[in-house]
Amino acid sequence: MGEQLSGLADDRALLGRTSTAERVADILRSRIAEGYFPPGTRLSEDGIGGALGVSRNTLREAFRLLTHERLLVHELNRGVFVRVLTVEDVEDIYRTRRLVECAVVRGLGDPPYALDALAGVVEQGRTAAREGDWKGVGTANIHFHRELVALAASERTDELMRSVFAELRLAFHVVDEPQRLHEPYIARNAGILQALREGDRDKAEVLLADYLEVSLERVVEVYRRRVGEDGQDGRPTV
Fold first, then answer.
1. What was the pLDDT predicted at 14?
2. 33-65 core/surface letters (b: 16 or more CB in 10 A; e: else)
3. pTM of this prediction?
4. What's 74's DSSP letter?
């Protein structure tokens, strides 16, 4: 864990003088989403607190916030771990995505829509694919859906889905087949974008619903196999 802590120390400057548990949680949430702390990793209070230069109480509050977001789990007499999702968790994440994302598209109102950010992440995905950076494609894919949700211009919806997308990254890290998982969605995202450019909300919603159904089947298929192979049941294994 030494290399991880060394890199985490670089984030110390982000805390500034007004260090808070929320800002520590923001840093750890981002690091978890990036796979810096993979699912099942035990988080050391002393190591992380020292790397960030924060008190034990501040760090524990940050852990509590992330536990509430279902990114961490506290095991009695063992410590705090990055959560390993169950298949049921993954299915519930996609159920939530379909409810929210499709509703956002359905409620967009009359075109034209502000699609520059959405178009930008589609291009980021294409660039990452050309470079063979499949984890980068996965990141661009999640950013696409985050920007799609942002079209609703709702802070509450953004906050809800930020947590959902962070949990989704936990599943992606366990699947660990980034090209097979993410490559098909480059074209699918472009299709959704094109439908919105044409002002066709109905078509965009149909494409999005199909995307989520296919993605769920693909992720669950691989995730169930990996969970079974590793003997994981949603509890940390390290």
1. 59
2. bebbbebbbebbeeebbebbebeeebbbbbbeb
3. 0.82
4. E
